[in-house]
Amino acid sequence: MSFPQVPVFDLRLEEDDVQAVLDVYRSGWLTMGPRTAEFERAFAEHLGAKHAVAVSSCTAALHLAYLAAGVGAGDEVIVPAMTFAATAAAVVYCGATPVFADVLGPHDLALDPEDVAAKITPRTKAVTVVHFAGYPAAVRELRALTDAHGLALIEDVAHAPCATVDGRALGTFGLAGAFSFFSNKVLACGEGGLLATDDDDVAALARSLRSQGMTSGTWSRHTGETETYDAVGMGFNYRLDEPRSALLLSRLAKLPRGVSRRRELTRAYRARLKDLPGVIVPYDDAAVEHSTCYVLPILLEDASRRNDVRTTLRDGGVQTSIFYPAVHEFTAYRERFGTPSLPQTEYVARAEITLPLHLDMDEAVIDRVVTALAEALR
Ligand SMILES: Cc1ncc(COP(=O)(O)O)c(C=O)c1O
Q1: Which residues line ligand 1 (CB under 6 A)?
Q2: What is the pLDDT at residue 1?
Q3: How many helices (H) and strands (E) does the chain have?
Q4: C-alpha distances in angstroms, 27 versus 30, 185, 213, 225, 274?
Q5: Disulfide engineering: 220 pairs with which of 135, 216, 305, 332, CB 3.0-4.6 Å?
Q6: Top-level CATH class of 15-252?
Q7: What pTM was estimated for this model as a whole?
Q8: What average pLDDT does range 340-367 have in this prediction?
């Protein structure tokens, strides 16, 4: 196996992060317990949200958010196709149908509120917005639209654990926000997620269903707080465990510093990419200040060149990725839900290249990537 000289993503844990995890292993209590509760309190405070419910993944958080919104068989949920499959898959777990809406275009890869409005039917139950790469989507406009139609707004905040609109954290604008702590995310622990909400009933349902609908958990029985339990709902095992909670707690304190560095690196990229012919860099400089800058997407004006450009970059030691192949074009979705026409999404899905962006790189690496890109485009 040969590793790229410039990987698209990298993660370096600091010594105190590792120590926090070791402490948990030495404590002898590994499943959901006091550290998870502490992480939930810290994350709720970080967001300014009333409740934070830690779960095993963002996919689990989305599933619970949809269930809390009352999504069930026969319902529709409007979602972008320019996202990771989980946004739509969790709709299908509820027996409902994902209805794909288009994104705004090459300069903003988030949901187009006009296309969402056009896709609302009597069966629509919710709309899910993805804050692509951590850049705030038109969340106020979408909230006004969902309120006007009596629908739930769900935020897929997998990319944006530390981004704001008018000083308010993304993930707090809808009925619930679903965060991801997957390895390559801005706040990572390997596998993990969280549902944030200001709604007491949504939080109670998520807490119950993440652990088999049980009235008490293992930690509460271990400490003698409760003796036994009932199962009052059909739940799942969506629990987060203590080592990962400890890692997240340790890394949460460093999140603002990490995001601020990501913004610096993104500004450095933007300055070098702005005059490169044939390349579109989505968003603008002002948007960077409100984003987590999770990834650095660029679009080729001529999408037919993408494979060649990526191969040349790879051969030069620069790894790239694609965020995202369009979900409505995946086999499993085409077979079940047909192929709606989403022209902007389809262009982005064919033209996008994700360049390396992570905290283990500096401006010299960015120079190298942009020089290699310029050569590949010539
Ligand atoms: C936009 C989006 N939604 C949902 C997910 C699913 O997250 P997880 O892997 O934590 O389930 C991801 C993860 O890649 C994502 O990027």
Answers
A1: 57-59, 83-84, 86-87, 130, 156, 158-159, 180, 182, 193
A2: 52
A3: 15, 14
A4: 8, 28, 27, 20, 52
A5: 216
A6: alpha beta
A7: 0.97
A8: 97
